[in-house]
Amino acid sequence: MTEDGWLKLGDIGILMPNGSIKILDRIKNICKTQNGFYVAPVYLENIYSQCTAIKQIFVSVQPEHDTISAIIFPDRDILIQDLSDSEDEYEEMKKISTTTLLENSKLKIIISE
Question: Over the stretch 29-85, which tens digit does the pLDDT of each residue have?
């Protein structure tokens, strides 16, 4: 217990307007970038993984760098659905290789957005 009556459990939380506490992450899961920003990779992974086009994501924070990196494994079927204008085009795109799919200019626009 702290002097002001709080119990230290190693969690990071915010005090909600209704007086409850929302747990965001664990202190041990927080990383500091080279320029002093504190980042919670698991929290970011949870937020970004809510996007239907993302099948898996890994967020990396390296203390010797000032940027955050992510490796994203997209959901191929969702990307093909976004690219195709018709059911026939969807079926044809399912047959092409991932390499060919990644060269699609429309996909590059979707990814950059």
Answer: 788 888 888 888 888 899 999 988 889 999 998 888 888 899 998 888 888 888 888
Planar angle of CA 44, 45, 49, nearest 5 degrees:
120
Are 100 and 92 a contacting pair, CB within 8 Å?
A: no
Q: What's the rounded Cα separation, in Å, for the pair 40 and 17?
A: 23
H/E/C letters for each residue in 43-105?
A: HHHHHHCCCCCEEEEEEEECCCCCCEEEEEEECHHHHHHHHCCCHHHHHHHHHCCHHHHHCCH
Residue-wise burial string across 7-30, b where 16 or more C-beta atoms lie within 10 A, e elsewhere: eeeeebeeeeeeeeeeeebeeeeb
Q: What is the pTM of this model?
A: 0.64
